[in-house]
């Protein structure tokens, strides 16, 4: 990846990842006390979500053209997903049919903390057509590949096409994580969460930059913001921003990831990209669910108001 990190140019961002149907259930706190029935008028939500959609939807709202590569089933959940994709104009050639659509149930407490229960159905064992992915890569300026199993063989295709790769390995434990190795070795831009790291974030970032090809490592620190590590630059911590308070932290990491990538694609320096990304993530936690539809202009406005 060039020193400019991502050169501004025409072209779309190819996002490959899971889209699911998510049921959100509010709870008072964790652990959850037993109750035979709870009445929650207008508080249960069912919506299309998943890492692939969350990142694609946020990038698109910010102003980056997106092509989505995912799988969805010929079942009622798949019908809901397709309706959402059609409304977003993301229902394109990259959507491949499978038997069942992934689903999840997310419990969210009053402080916004969440517990995710996910059922990926048969998607981890499915094969995304490599020739289709190669065709979608033509003209792409960036490939965003989540850590779902069907993306594993697609990493090499993106590398061969010389398209920069951005990866969020999410709740990784460290650089030795076996499952994540192909993504760690492929990423030009590497994101993760500090939630389950077994080392200090600074140490993880330094080791990742030394061992893997990534030029940029960003670690989500939850309420502490984010850590930005750029090769040959000092490490920086960017404080969290929550303009509308904390309602639901579901999808905050996806919003941080997408917010950073959009700004980098727009030609901004990584420092500016990180500052804007925490605003995007801060807006995400201030609304229920994982759909973050904040515009780039709104981010600029919120940043100006916080100064």
As a percent range, the share of helical residues equals: 25-40%
From N to C, what is the helix and strand string? EEEHEHEEEHEHEHEHEEEHHH
Which strand order spans the largest sheet, edge to edge or round the barrel? 5-4-1-8-9-10-11-12-13
| Poorly predicted sequence stretches spanning 5 or more consecutive residues | none
Name the average pLDDT: 92
**Share in β-strands:** 15-25%
Radius of gyration over all CA atoms, rounded:
18 Å
Produce the secondary structure layout.
Layout: E1 13-16, E2 20-26, E3 45-49, H1 51-62, E4 66-73, H2 76-87, E5 95-98, E6 103-108, E7 114-119, H3 130-137, E8 142-145, H4 152-160, E9 165-168, H5 181-186, E10 189-193, H6 201-211, E11 216-220, E12 226-230, E13 236-238, H7 252-265, H8 270-285, H9 296-306
Parallel strand pairs: 1-4, 1-8, 2-6, 4-5, 8-9, 9-10, 10-11
Antiparallel strand pairs: 2-3, 6-7, 11-12, 12-13
Helix pairs in contact: 1-7, 3-4, 7-8, 8-9
